[in-house]
Amino acid sequence: MGIVTSIPNILSLSRILLSFAMFFVAGHPPILFAFVVLCGITDVLDGYLARKFHCESNLGARLDSLGDLVYYSALTLYVIRFQMPLIQPYLGGIFAIFVIKTLTLLVSKLRNGRVYSLHTYGNKLTGVMVVVSICLILLTGTGLFVALLVIVGILSALEELLIMSIFKEPDTNTRSIFQSKRTS
After folding, report:
1. Could you give the CA distance from residue 180 to residue 173 in angstroms, rounded to a whole number?
2. Which of 55, 92, 105, 164 is the most buried (most CB within 10 A)?
3. What distance in Å separates the CA atoms of residue 127 and residue 165, rounded to the nearest whole number?
4. Are 45 and 13 spatial neighbours (Cβ–Cβ below 8 Å)?
5. What is the DSSP letter of 117?
6. Are 7 and 57 in contact, with CB atoms under 8 Å apart?
7. Are the C-beta atoms of residues 78 and 39 closer than 8 Å to each other?
8. Quick one: angle between helices 29-52 and 3-21, nearest 10?
9. 3-class DSSP state for residue 136?
10. pLDDT tens, 10-67?
């Protein structure tokens, strides 16, 4: 395995490290903005490069998932700690997303014996919108884009719950309810 095939895992690891580093630069919006963008770029590139170089692996998938968990948790903690007044009007919708996502994980465990989420277009769009929302908050000091993010997040979470409820063992790479893939 050469250096080229290690790049996706290196990107996932860098997202984890940069996510932790965000806590140390939270008081410096321009630096935090750069970290948020860099993490977003690694999130897009790691999976793309793994597929392009044909070096997908269980380790890579786990690192990507861990990177996503750490990154989005760091973003959530930042918003709660430093930007709560901007998201206060949307807390009901954010709570609804949390409840639907929790139900989806429960359904995946009950139906398939394991807890996992899907890489749907809706989930990817929601992830991009989270990053854009945080960047816009840092740049403008307003949370106006958050309303659209919450709507897309709820629809995406409902789609994933529906897929998990209807299809037995949907593939993690299921793209939408209309393009469901099942594992064998």
Report:
1. 9
2. 164
3. 22
4. no
5. -
6. no
7. no
8. 150
9. helix
10. 999 999 999 999 999 999 999 999 999 999 999 989 988 998 999 988 888 889 888 9
